[in-house]
Amino acid sequence: MPGQSLIASRQDLEAYIGHFNAHEYDRQIAYYAPDVRYKVGTLTIDSPQAIREFYEDFHAYSDEHVQLLEFALTGDVVGAVLATTFQPHRDYLKHGLEFYAGEERAIVTLAFYRLKAGKIHRIRMARYPGPRSDFG
């Protein structure tokens, strides 16, 4: 899969998100550089395998679906607007994150991915306070 799991277009990021949504973790983490760094909640995760383990655990508590709303690529930086819906079926109170069973949540995220040789090297995300309808 190396060579196929690079981010060079919107379609590539859509494929990555598709693997995430389908819980195809091996295919998802194939897009990461070996020294990827991702901050989520109070965690800083420093490897593709650790990201996989985080999401395997989190998805045991909550269904999650991500949709790409906006995409921009300049050099080795991808900017994206992501709409995410969470449907927790068990309470998840870990790593500074709080999701409660039965409380569906929708958020809009501004995401920035720094690439290294086409692989995701750094992931930075911030919640957008406005509605999803602000984007397309």
Protein model, in words:
This protein is an alpha+beta fold and 136 residues long. It has one domain: Nuclear Transport Factor 2, Chain: A (Roll). Helices cover 21% and strands 48% of the residues. It is built from three helices and eight strands. The chain has helices spanning 10-21, 25-29, 48-58, and strands at residues 32-40, 43-45, 62-74, 77-88, 92-94, 97-99, 105-116, 119-128. It has a six-stranded mixed β-sheet, with helices on one face. A two-stranded antiparallel ribbon has the order 5-6. The longest helix has 12 residues, at 10-21. The protein is globular. The mean pLDDT is 95.
CATH class: Alpha Beta
How many domains is the backbone divided into?
Answer: 1
User: Structural class of the helices, strands and pairings?
Assistant: alpha+beta
Look at the structure and give the mean pLDDT. Answer: 95
How many angstroms does the end-to-end distance come to? 33 Å
Instruction: Please tell me the CATH architecture by its name.
Output: Roll
Under CATH, the topology can be stated as Nuclear Transport Factor 2, Chain: A
Count of separate DSSP helical elements? 3
Q: Which strands sit side by side, in order, in the main sheet?
A: 2-1-8-7-4-3
Characterize the main sheet: 6 strands, mixed
Would you report the number of β strands?
Answer: 8
The helicity comes to 10-25%
Q: Which oligomeric form is depicted?
A: single chain
